[in-house]
Design brief:
This protein is of the alpha/beta class. It is built from 15 helices and 5 strands. It is globular and about 65 Å long.
C-alpha cells in the first residue's frame, strides 16, 4: 500500500495544518442541525478527500462510496443516482464522495441541484475539486464550502518526519527537508517521493529528493532569460529539457520573484509574477510554456 494511503489521517486531530478547515468542521459537528452537502476546494494532494472521509466518519456514516464525477455526463445518469438516495441502506446512513467535481457537465450539475438541496436525512454528499470556477453558482450556493490549503514547509516536514518514524526509516535531516520541500504543500506528493528514496544509498537519496533544488534551478534560468531578453529559442530549450513537474517550477519562480520583491522595489519582478499566478494542475507543461511565452512577449 502506498505511504500516503497507509498513513492517511483518521481523525481531525491527526491532520497536520489546515487549522481553519478543522475548526469549521468541528463547529459543524457540534450542531444538532447539520448540513448534508459539502464542497472541499483545494490543490491536488492537499487532503480534500481525506477530510471528506474523516467528516463522514465523524458523522457516523456506515457506508461511504467514492464516485468519479466524470461518470456523470448527463441528466439520465444523475437521475438514476438520485433514485438511489431515496432508499435507506442497511446501516441506516450513507455518504457519497464525488471526486473532481469540476468534471461534472453542465447538464449533470443542473440535474444535481434538487438532490443537493433536498438531500435525504440519511444521506450526505461530499464533493471535492481543484477548480471550483467550473461549478455553477447555483450548485455551490447549496453546499458548505471548505477551503483546504497547501501545507507550509514546516508542516510538510512534520508530515514526512512522522511517517518516516512510523516506517522505521533512518533518513538524514537534509533528505527529509528536501522531500518535504519537493512536495510543494502536497502531503501526497511528498510521501510518494519518500517512497522513492527508501533503500537508496545516501547520495542517491539526496539526488532523488533534490527535486526542489532542480525546480528552483530551472525557475532561475527561466526568470533570467525572460528578464534579460533572451531569445524564445533559448527559453524553449530550457522548457524542452524539463524533467520536473511544471507546477514545481511555477512555485519556485514565484518564490524567486518574491525574494526579489522583499529585497527591493522591482516592478519588473511584479509584472513577471503576474504570468505565473495560476496553477498548472490541469494544463501541465502546456500551461508553463504559455506562461513563459506570455511573459517573454511582454518584454519584446
Amino acid at each position: 500500500m502506498e505511504l500516503y494511503r497507509k498513513h492517511r489521517p483518521q481523525s481531525l486531530k491527526e491532520i497536520v495544518g489546515n487549522t481553519a478547515a478543522k475548526l469549521e468542521l468541528t463547529g459543524i459537528l457540534k450542531k444538532q442541525q447539520r448540513p448534508h452537502t459539502f464542497l472541499f476546494v483545494g490543490h491536488a494532494g492537499c487532503g480534500k478527500t481525506t477530510m471528506a472521509h474523516i467528516l463522514a466518519k465523524e458523522l457516523g456514516l456506515k457506508n461511504v462510496i467514492e464516485q468519479n464525477s466524470a461518470d456523470y455526463r448527463g441528466i439520465d445518469s444523475v437521475r438514476e443516482f438520485a433514485k438511489t438516495l431515496e432508499f435507506i441502506p442497511m446501516g441506516g446512513s450513507q455518504g457519497y464522495i464525488f471526486e473532481e467535481a469540476h468534471k461534472l457537465t453542465n447538464d449533470a450539475q443542473e440535474a444535481l441541484l434538487k438532490p443537493v438541496e433536498n438531500c435525504p436525512s440519511h444521506t450526505y454528499l461530499f464533493f471535492t475539486t481543484t477548480d471550483p470556477s467550473k461549478l455553477c453558482t447555483a450548485i455551490k450556493t447549496r453546499m458548505v464550502i471548505i477551503g483546504v490549503q497547501q501545507l507550509t514547509d514546516a508542516e510538510m516536514q512534520k508530515v514526512v518526519s512522522n511517517v518516516a518514524e512510523k516506517e522505521g526509516l533512518e533518513l538524514s535531516e537534509d533528505v527529509i527537508t528536501h522531500v518535504a520541500k519537493s512536495g510543494y504543500g502536497s502531503p501526497r506528493r511528498a510521501l510518494s517521493l519518500l517512497e522513492k528514496v527508501i533503500g537508496l544509498p545516501y547520495e542517491e537519496q539526496l539526488q532523488v529528493a533534490g527535486y526542489h533544488d532542480e525546480a528552483e534551478s530551472v525557475a532561475i534560468d527561466l526568470c533570467r532569460l525572460i528578464v534579460k531578453g533572451g531569445t524564445w529559442e533559448e527559453i524553449a530549450t530550457v522548457l524542452g529539457g524539463l524533467t520536473v513537474e511544471p507546477e514545481g517550477v511555477r512555485r519556485a519562480m514565484l518564490g524567486y520573484l518574491r525574494a526579489i520583491l522583499l529585497r527591493k522595489s522591482s516592478p519588473q519582478a511584479f509584472l513577471l509574477a503576474q504570468h505565473f499566478k495560476d496553477n498548472y494542475y490541469n494544463t501541465g507543461n502546456v500551461g508553463l510554456v504559455l506562461s513563459c511565452y506570455s511573459a517573454w512577449l511582454e518584454k519584446q
